[in-house]
Structures are given as structure tokens and as C-alpha cells.
Amino acid sequence: MIKKNRFVLLTLTISILFLTACEKAVTDGPGIGGGGGSTAHTTTTIENPEVHTALSSSDKVIDTQTTRDNTPVCLETTAPGTASEGNDLAEIDYSNYKDGYIMVNYLGTCGKVKLLITGPDGIQNKYDIKNGYAAFPLTGGNGTYEISVCENISGTKYSVAYATSLDCPDISEFGPYLHPNQYVYYNKDCKVITKGANLAAYCNTDLDVVTNVYDFITQNIVYDYDKANTVASGYISDVDAILQSGTGICLDYSAVMTSMLRSQRIPTRLEVGYVGAENPVYHAWISVYIEDVGWLNGIIQFNGKEWSLVDPTFGASTDPKTLKKYIGDGTNYEISHVY
Predict the structure, then answer these.
(1) Comparing C-alpha atoms, which of 160, 123, 155 is closest to residue 138?
(2) Contact of 192 with 239, CB cutoff 8 Å
(3) Could you give the CA distance from residue 50 to residue 184 in angstroms, rounded to a whole number?
(4) What is the pLDDT of residues 146-183, one digit of tens each?
(5) Cα–Cα distances in angstroms (integers) from residue 33 to residues 223, 226, 238, 314, in the given order
(6) For the chain, which domains are there?
């Protein structure tokens, strides 16, 4: 990796995006409301594996005889310090950039701090950060990433505490979409991973896993309109809390499904942007990459060569025919950020 330091003192205004628009229906579209290592695994039984039930305290990872290895794998994100830089306010550890992520640690005392990552694709992702290392994905492909840690001065004005450019060649194609990060956070002890393993237990293909996970989420998570109307900027989903409560907003649906699929070694992108042509609303959904060829409930076609868009939020409240027509070729969806 080639790195170029850029020390800057300036003031900038950061526009803040709110994940609040999903409480409105999309014009002419479906309604949005809605009815490192692997974990240790133990052997148990399921009375009826075809019926998806809510999470219970007795859920355990299931060991079964299938043609697919369904043992959950929770890749770790670490900051070993073998390649890092920073100052007295921020540390950037890029030791594992080839796996598709960097680790950032804020060291100062400001209570409101933003991390800006602009990839070679020109897309800028904004994050709220606090003290302590957290993982952030490199989703713009190979090339130079501009990274800035910015402290709030007042209102929407920020000063750059530390900035650098990182040259990142040879990033793993699927690395950013198989690791946890700040927006899709989970570890081997999370109940959402155990539940995902249960749903995958009797599956022989990745498409079977995607189908079981999708069916469970759309049948067991109800859209939370009150939360959508009050959620604050910078909201991050707690996947275990969402799984336990059975309620959430679009980001929650997407984060839970992404966590389950990534832990089953299925590359999954959490995407945020706008849906609808006439009256676009802010929304979150996922795209999945599998080599299998087939259909998800007759709605989404997987051709084994491309990412396929899946919208679990709309799927929870929309009949398959309407949903298939709306998702279509994806032109109703405009991606702003990928996590």
C-alpha cells in the first residue's frame, strides 16, 4: 500500500442524511408497513424445520447432514497495527485493507465526530464515530480513498482533525460484504447468527439459505412506524434487539438479513438510497451475490453472475406479484451508499 498524508485545517459543512423516509408509501409502489472464526456448534433438533418461528432462548446452532456447509462463520475485524497512521486525535489502521475494511479510532474529546470516506468511485460515505476502534468498509473498489476525521465546531460546521489518502489495490471483491462493520455489526455470540444458522440448517444451496432467511424476516418482523417518525440521524441497527422485538424500520430489516447471510458466507451488500420515481423516499435494502441460478419465491431471479436486489421491508407487506413488478430491473431504486 502507498500512503500519502494530508494535514488540513479547514471548516466544512456536512449534510446529514436521515433514515426516516420509509414511513411513507412509495407512489405507485408497494406499501412499506408490515404485518476471523466460526462459532461452536451443538446438536439439537427442530420439530418442524419448514416452519419459521420467532427466536427463543433455546435456539442453538444445528448440525445436520446436507451438501452445504452451514456452519456460521463470523469473520473478525482487527487493528493489528502493522500498517497504520494518525495523530493525537485519530488513528487509521489499514493493515487489513485487502479484506475490504479499515479500522478507525477517535482519540479526542469532542462529543460529535464524523468520519468521511470517499472512494475511487467518487461516492462519499459519512459515519458518526466515537472513541474506540470500529470497522468501516471499502466499497468503492480498488484505488485511492480519501479519509477524514472531523470534529464538530457548531451546528453543521466541522474541522478536520486528521486526513489522509490511502492507495488500496487488490481489495477482495467480496471482502467488504462478508465482514461485519459499523452499520452491519455482529459477532459469533450474537443470537442473530445462531438464528441464521438454524434457518440454514437443512439447506443444500445458497439460494435455499437466502429463501429461508427472507421468509423468516418478512414473516416475523413488523414495520415500526413510530420509530421511523422519530429515529435520529446516525441511527445504527442493533440486530439482536430487532430480532428479539420483532419490529423495526427498513435499515433494521436489511441489517438483520445482511448479518445472517454474511455469517453464512453469502456476500451481501446493505444499500441505502431512494425508491420511487415521482415522490422518492429514503430507504434501505440489500443486494445478494450467489452462484446459484433460480428464483426467490418467484420474485427475484438469481442468474449466478450478478448482484440481485432483495427488499425485505417491502416483502413483509406486499404480495409477490406486485413486489416482482415493482422491483423489476431495479430502476425504481437509486443507490446512494453501500455498507
Answers:
(1) 123
(2) yes
(3) 27
(4) 999 999 999 999 999 999 999 999 999 999 999 999 99
(5) 5, 11, 20, 8
(6) 21-73+186-338 (3.10.620), 76-177 (2.60.40.10)
